[in-house]
Records
---
Amino acid sequence: IGRALACAPEILILDEPTANIDIPTEENIFGLLKKYNEHMTIIVVSHDIAFISGYVDRVACLHQTLVCHRTEEISGKTIEDLYGASMRMIDHHH
């Protein structure tokens, strides 16, 4: 992430940037990314919608079609309707 930011990109694309990282470090990284997002577009691939929705403005869900949601619209029901399976959202309290 540091090398990518050193290039001062207009768009930063990250694939699971906090995989296998402890929760406090994950929160620190996403807090930093939220600050960088004031000056650049950041696209993050993540499977943890409950966590990521606390740091982003919009979530794009992909399952046979692309559906974008504002983060305040994300719920277990939204995900269940999209993916056709029961879903439970876990609040990370960040």
Note: Residues 36 and 42 are 8 Å apart (CA to CA).
---
Amino acid sequence: MAARSRKPRNEQTPAPEASLAPARPADPGARKARRRPAVLVVGADEAVRDALALAGISHEAAASADEARTALRRRRYDAAVIDLRLPEGDGVALVREWSARAEGPRAIVLARSGSLEDAMDAMRSGARDLIVRPFEGADLATRVRRALDEGRRERTREQEVERLRRACSRMQADRKAVTRQVDSLCNDLADAYEELAEQMSHVSMASEFASLLKQELDVESLLRTCLEFVLTRTGPTNAAIFLPSNHCDYSLGAYVNYDCPKDSAEVLLDHLADVLAPRVDRAERLIEAPDDAGLERLLGADEAHWLAGTGAIAYPCRHEGECLAVLVLFRDRTKVYP
């Protein structure tokens, strides 16, 4: 009968299959709490550790002040339960030491009596709370959780401040980059404006010069007006305009004598008409001769001595490919042309 009665029960109640099911993963937060206890218990007895364990608060224990200092150097704790009377060392001194640190844990002092002296020592040292023996385990857990919450909130604030600090650093770097780009743009715009203003000045000058020349009806007046206009722009200078008389020869059309000797000025200018003007006739642009080498290029090595010590400018006045005149300016080379 017994055998027959057991068989049906085995058929109706199969063996549990819990061992075949995959293990339920532990809560990540709980694993983290076990791996990194947030509470350090210093010098307290088993009752304190049992109360924290019963409340599910992960913690580490240090028997003395030196062990506690070593533990705190390894990592950061959000809260610490410290016995006021340590076997080796002073709990108040340890609390004071940690309170002075920016990342020190929030200290909960455990006193053996509720005397005013103990309370004053604890508060002056920087303790966040004072628990007097005998204590309720639930009350201890509540106060420790409160300290942990404060620590985590402060850590969150610190992380937020650090995040904002990094963001400000990036913004500062971006601002400096934008400032450099703006400075570069301003310099480019200033250069462009200066170049445009110079071009507009040239256009305005050319327009003014053309309007003056159009008012003259004869060649002599036209040449005089031309030289007067040039002198207002260059300052005092020797100036001459050479006109073509035939295919290759030039003659002096008009001149201004600034510092040449009177008895030799016409000889010099006539010689320049023979030597300099034909060479400039073939040029396509303004020729500058600020030194001896430039004068040799302008006049030739054998003729450069005629303008020794001067700086010269020569320009062919062309129209439709034909040179209608050659303008020459020269003066002491220390007085540079604008």
Note: DSSP finds ten helices and ten strands in the chain.
---
Amino acid sequence: MTNKDRREYFRIFTSRLVTFTVEGHTYRGVVGNAGDNGVFITTRGNFSVGQGISMTFESPIFGNEERSGMIIWVGSQEKGIGVEFKNVLDTREITS
């Protein structure tokens, strides 16, 4: 994600469970912040920039919401991954 993207999309802090799949392996994590174009997922695992990811967000209002995207950065100090969605998302779907 470029600095331009960070200015362009508003991000909110949240704590929603997410189940996601990378290269056929399923993981669980917590969405730490979300924007219309992506999320930060707190999780542990061996991930690489450029890997495809499929996610299911748990939302009591919207039910389970499925999204796909790409890992665009991997945290070294803060354990987790930055994910950019293939399609822009309304953040209310994750945070409600």
Note: DSSP finds two helices and six strands in the chain.
---
Amino acid sequence: MTKQFIRAFIETYEKVSSLITKSQGKLTEDIRTKIYDKVIEAKIFVNKLLLNEEITVEQKIELVEQSLQIINNILVNKPEAIQNLFWYELETIRRGNISLLMGFWGEAGILRVTGTANALANILMGIEPIDINDIYVEYGHPEYLKRYSLTYNILNQSSTLYYNASTALYNISEEKFKEWTTLAIKSQAELLQFHRKTWIIPRLYEIAKERPPESISNGFAVMIQSISQILNCLVTLHARCGGQWPEEIRTNPLLDSTNTKTVIDSLAKLSKEVEGYIQDLERHQKQGTFKHHKNILAYPVMEYTYSISEQHQYVIEGLKAIYELVIKGEKDTIGNLQKCNNSILAYLQKNKEKLNDKDFMVSTLGDESVNQFEFFLFFAAIESISTKNRRPLQEMKEALGIYLQEEGRKRFPQIYAIYLVGQLTFTSNEKDHEQMEKLAEELICLAPLLVFQPRDSFTFLLMGHLTKMVRGKETPEQFNLIMHNELEKRREFLYPEIIDDVENYLRTVRNAINGKKPNYAFERAEKNPFDPYSILIPNYTKITKNQGFINCIKSLVNKIRNRVANKESVPEWENIRYIPFNLSTDFIFSK
């Protein structure tokens, strides 16, 4: 079955190419119709490919690359004067496929590395600007459904393309980040506005009722997915921006970027809107609006849509709870975080069978859930730390099944890293020295699994060896030598600014060990609930045997407090807060 699907997938794209080549530019009405129908078939094949759980994400990306090559060859020879709908459809598929290349993680992150390289090459080839005013027509036009779907896809693919480009690249210049982020947010705002204007279920069903039920289900699912995906985009972008959005975005109606609270409020409002669209569909199903079809909500694409939307909803709820508890310091709000974590655990228990299935882990949903799972562990870690109870984090680990077992660690080491750092932070507060030393060894062993992420692998080596050093299991000389050698191994893969930061950091550690005044990077003191590593920081003063380490930091408390202007994010300076170099903002460089 899988081999047949793969063969049919490629043959469909080859047939599109063949029809266009044979036409020799003479596009009669009959030929245009044949090409358009085959292009739509090719587009549907992409959706089927993503939902096919028998095909791994590695195989999917290979097929996407092959189809993208065929489309590029077709579009290179496109007549400039001809703008039939199928040309727009092909350009939309191209944008979608470029986005897909950047959207998967793969074994130890290899797909993210190879995919972004391939995608960047395609972006540099050029993304043809498309004015949706040339395509969209009002309801009543004979081609309304075709043009409505095409307009929706153009806005959706533009949003996803530029979002992925600004977040999937391992390092990105500040200039490109601002450019692509601005384009992503602009497209998202236009998409949301278009969706609100045209989300009239009876009308959409009436003009689509002659289509196969799976196609109708897919259409509604894509609409909800695209709006839900905006939530995921904004969460990641806010972490990358460090809370400081580019000036061009601050007036965008999509979100209020005044401060962290207003961003979370905007996301919560959008999350409720997505929930409303799902309820709207279910209501129309019960009312019999889809009278020509028994149950269009029963197809796999809807299950995928519901699951991703539910995950995003929990992330927003958790971020709001973290903001209240950690950033605002409102200790009596711990109940909100506990309630959110209980809902997450119930969701994971409901999907227990899948979460222990390797085939699910390598599926589209299994790969795309990774970002949300990282947040789930982060939320559980904060609950454990706040309540001085290891159980919440341990329960979340167990609920995530195979993802935190050996196979999952190899494929998604970044998830296990969140768990380990959460445990390390918890145990440092509890002064569980023996457990800390075990966690330090696990962090060191995790580093080789991040071979495609040199900055991250260095981060966890650093945290592991620093923990051993402050516990007296390594001498300062051993620590310095190991870190120097590990940095040298990665020097050619890291941009100069991050190397300077790391070297300054290591110098700060040496000074603190010797009781000298360290040179703090104050911008790293800002806590951002969207970035777990700005909050999950082991408390080394509670477990260190080096008195100079403690005295040096405590003598700087008042001076440092005066330097931190934003009282919303004032750190707990009574404790040493060494920020590991794994913050989201570290992806961006200014030169």
Note: Strands lie at 172-173, 588-589.
